[in-house]
Amino acid sequence: MKFEWRKKEKDLYIPKQKPELVAVSKQKFFMIQGKGNPNHEEFAERVGVLYSLAYAIRMMPRNGYTPEGYFEYTVYPLEGIWDLTEEGRQLDELNKDELVYTIMIRQPDFVTAEVVERAFERVREKKPHPYLEEVKFETVEDGMSVQMLHVGPFDEEPQTFEKMDAFLETQQLERVSLTHREIYLSDIRRVEPSKLKTVLRYQVKPRG
To answer: Cα–Cα distance between 120 and 130 in angstroms, integer?
Structure first.
């Protein structure tokens, strides 16, 4: 039976349209860093190499190698951690050219360093990519976080963040940093902006 993250991990990936507290345990990711406007081709290229690696692992049994502990699963959604350059933080309005990001795709727990190396070898052979060697495989633990489902264009996210920030006040919490995580549940190429679904999340800690 295929593992479906939309069904098995609803608490992390299918939140409600209201702020909620969630504990995010350790997760394994392919990740790559970048800077600049996500509407530019460079961002799409970085997304592409992440998916190449993710599917290289997903398809390993069909290509003659089955990792120990492997199970059928749906590839996890693209995620991104977003920040601004120092210059960008000084501006009154968002300049997307000043964005700094780490985009990533989560991997199942059975993925080991050996499996990762096999995935890199597969991509090098079948689909060489200029950004491949920039990709890292790391374990991340966000811990206590506040999240909320945002429905609509990315440019309207500040309205959702206002609700999340107000929730912090009621819970005696504060943000750990100015960065935030986005999890993209919709295919931006196929879904109109008004219907895009994005999980917005940031780490928090007790105030004081």
So the answer is: 13
CATH, residue 116: 3.20.80.10
Last residue of a domain, one of 122, 140, 158: 140
Q: Which two tokens stand for residue 54?
A: 């993710």
What pLDDT, on a 0 to 100 scale, did the predictor assign at position 128?
Answer: 86
Q: Specify whether the CB–CB gap between 202 and 181 falls below 8 A.
A: yes
Token look-up 């206590």 returns 144
**Cβ contact 136:57 at 8 Å:** no
**Which of 126, 142, 118, 120 has its CA nearest to residue 199?**
142
Domain with 14, as residue range(s), is 7-25+142-208
Q: Which of 202, 32, 176 is nearest to 102 (CA)?
A: 32
Query: Residues 3-26: pLDDT tens digits?
Result: 999 999 999 999 999 999 999 999
